[in-house]
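If it is no trouble, can you show me the amino acids of a protein and the tokens describing how it folds?
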Amino acid sequence: MSWAASFAAIGLALREMHPLPMASVRFALASLLAIAWILWRRPPRFSRRDLVVILICGMLGIASYNVLLNSGQATVSAGAASFIVNTQPLFMVGLAVVFLKERFSLWAWGGALLALGGVAVIASGQPDGMTFGAGAMLIVGAAASAASYSVLQRPLLARYDSISVTAAVILAGTIALLPWLPAGIGQLSAASHPTVGAVLFLAIAPAAIGQTCWTFALKSFGAARAGQFLYLIPPCAVFFAWAGLGEVPAIATLVGGALALGGVITVNTLGRR
């Protein structure tokens, strides 16, 4: 639920903050919780090789994902963004096909085309559609970054506990976003109370707690089963955007979202048989 509410919170914060500074100050706050946990629990040290993987995960799953998502949501509605982002299982399957040589069945191809068609329908109702650099395309890039991060961190979860991995990845992503932290602090200090509250929520709930729960789910259930829960995010996100921001979902968003979700579900069910 915290991830579903994050799209509305991002939309609210972007009314007074710029995308990159907002991402930087959000994860600077989240990193304080990560540092506190590390100092308290004293988890085992990572090997040098695993530290490199963690740095890449931080760049993809924290820095790249949030920069692309925030920048995309500057022009794309929160509800539409949630549907586009949750095509990330398609990219995870695609990575498995390319790097693990897994077979892509006819059902999987059909589901992928259906999901991509849904994204195109959603984008048609957003500024600049699917043109390069448009908000919808930036969010597609965010989905690809999230998928790459989820795949890369799997081996780490076999050797370390989920909270240690999450804390380290958050710190790595925060370091990558440090150049925009001064601007983020300045914008946050001048922002209204609702914006400050939204950033604090984003730092604590989706960033710290949500990332930890997702990493735990990946370790406990595997990517396929854990990914099933992601299907609940877009409908909930549409509700939060309507209740919190007054965003009434466009017909293109609802139709395209249904197609995108249908395609993703097809890939992850019939496409895996």
Notes: The mean pLDDT is 82. Residues 2-272 form one domain. The radius of gyration is 18 Å.
